[in-house]
Amino acid sequence: MAASLQTARPIEHLSLTATFRSVRGLADLIADGLMTADPPYQRKSTWTPRQQAALVESWLSGTPIASVIINDRDNSGWIQHNGPLGDGPCYAVIDGKQRIEAGAAWLGGALAVPASWFPAADVDRTEQTSDGPYVRYPWLSKAARTHFAVSVGQLPVATAKVATVQAEAEIYLRVNSAGTAQTAEDLERAARVARRV
């Protein structure tokens, strides 16, 4: 018998605030200890460099990127349940950790992508790989870096103001357990179609 979908009380509407934020700004919040990307319900870092490069490709092509969901813990409900924030992080990444990490890897120069993705005039330096020349963000021209940081490297962000880690985990589960995961066969079928000339 399937688990019941009944709830103890009516579902509360969360009224998340939707904005766009730079991936650099989000990564800086984590680096500065103002946002945690590792609450207890969050998965570990899992994206491969190829998956991280696919995010850069999405940014460059203008392909919509799923929203990052964060919780602003500096709210009265959180403080009532958990006490003052003190030195703890003001924000928690509920969903989108991999996207923020991929953006930070790209902007920090840890991730290389094909140089062919950029106009030749935007590439100051490359490294040779088995897949041809690759470029890292610091090796782009200043104009290309500025354009990316200001206009391209943005993530849609939905901000919650829930009161507990349990409520954050409920959001995480809603976002990550709905639907059916793509299989390798599904993705290969789409890749075959995409490669057709």
Describe the overall structure.
The protein is an alpha/beta fold. It has a domain at 17-107 and 153-176: Alpha-Beta Complex (Conserved hypothetical protein from pyrococcus furiosus pfu- 392566-001, ParB domain). It contains seven helices and eight strands; from the N terminus they run βαβαβαβαβββαβαα. The strands form two sheets. It has a five-stranded mixed beta sheet with strand order 1-8-3-4-2. A three-stranded antiparallel beta sheet has the order 5-7-6. A hairpin with a 2-residue loop joins β6 and β7 (132-136). The model has no long low-confidence stretch (mean pLDDT 93).
Strand order of the largest sheet: 1-8-3-4-2
The CATH first-level class of the domain at 17-107 and 153-176 comes to: Alpha Beta
Distance between the termini: 49 Å
Task: Report the sheet-strand fraction.
Answer: 15-25%
Average pLDDT, all residues: 93
What is the overall silhouette? globular
Structural class: alpha/beta
